[in-house]
Amino acid sequence: MKKLILAVVLGGAMHGAMAADQGLLEAARAQQAPLLATLKELVLIESGSSDTAGVARVADVSALRLKALGAVVERKDGIVTGRFTGKGSKRLMLIAHMDTVYQPGILVSQPYHVDGNRVYGPGIADDKSGIALILHTIEMLHARGWRDYAQLTVIFNPDEEVGSRASGEWIATQAAQHDFVFSCEPNGAQMEGILLSASGIATATMTVQGRAAHAGVAPKVGRNTLIELSHQLLQTQDINVPGAQLNWTRANAGLVTNQIPASATAQGDVRLSATDGAQRLQQALSEKVAKPLVADTVTTVAIEQGRPPFIATDAARACAVKAQAIYGEIDRKLALYPGTGGGTDAGYASRAGTAIVLEAFGLAGDGVHGKDEYITIDSIVPRLYLLSRMMQEAGASQ
């Protein structure tokens, strides 16, 4: 079955290492300097998720560039969507995000600068490199006359770093109408690769209800929810559920010190590696907290799901093998990363299960979400070559 999928997805092109497309490689080299200029322009626009004006400025630049490339551009809820109509039969989609994790004024302490092979700046890897790569890949391919797609859709969303709560559904519904989705998050500088899975994200909330009483005069009349919450947190801290990981991270109880608290809450970070992980975790937690330590207290747990997990299908894994072969054309190795604890929009893109979805086509870099975020200059040409060749292969697939 896997061999059949491989042949269908890759058009049967599995006959050993192929020679590089020298014309495409030269075109990629010619795009390096323009891409760096685009990247600098984007990084110099601060666009933290809560900085709506900054994100809108990145959207303005991105929308203008897509229009200049010939796209019909739609802007809604801060999302930039560009559509190109081609002459082929396949529907391709590229995604990246415009927001960063940094607060306004970050460029003062973390300025854009170049140091040898590294270019530093807040959000330069995650994910302004993805935006720049998409724009210049399309420019390069169109300049060479490539239009082997029925539709090419580009989505730049404004809220990935805060869970894509506004844009996730849009990405999911659009991806369901496409054959391939390549998400352009960055990848590691130590070993460039493609990502085969990423965690889904959810929030667990534990609530304990008890009875208030005077802490000094009649403490035993009360039903202390702080004690019960502590007990329940301890007994669920190492809960083992396949496909779900829980870490309690916040807790609160009581309003004043001289009153037995009548209610208490805790919240936890949930990472999901299976589509039914949240449901299994919910059941396991509910069973665990059913018996109280403090009499007459009631504990409940609710799980709010956010970004779904991304799990590459067999067809997507076959596509990733093709990506390795393409990197081999230019004498570079490409790792196939099995997974990450972080979440990505590939989770939304793969939710319907219709498109072949792969993640991490962006530039190589490191230090994301930190003080010294950077991309490597020598990854630009290979990543341009990889994404453009993958798009060509996808467009030509049967």
UniProtKB/TrEMBL annotation:
PROSITE patterns: ARGE_DAPE_CPG2_1 (PS00758), ARGE_DAPE_CPG2_2 (PS00759). This is M20/M25/M40 family metallo-hydrolase. Pfam families: M20_dimer, Peptidase_M20. Its cofactor is Zn(2+). Residues 1-19 form the signal peptide. Residues 198-295 form the Peptidase M20 dimerisation domain. It comes from the Bacteria. CDD domains: M20_CPDG2 (cd03885). Keywords: Hydrolase, Metal-binding, Signal, Zinc.
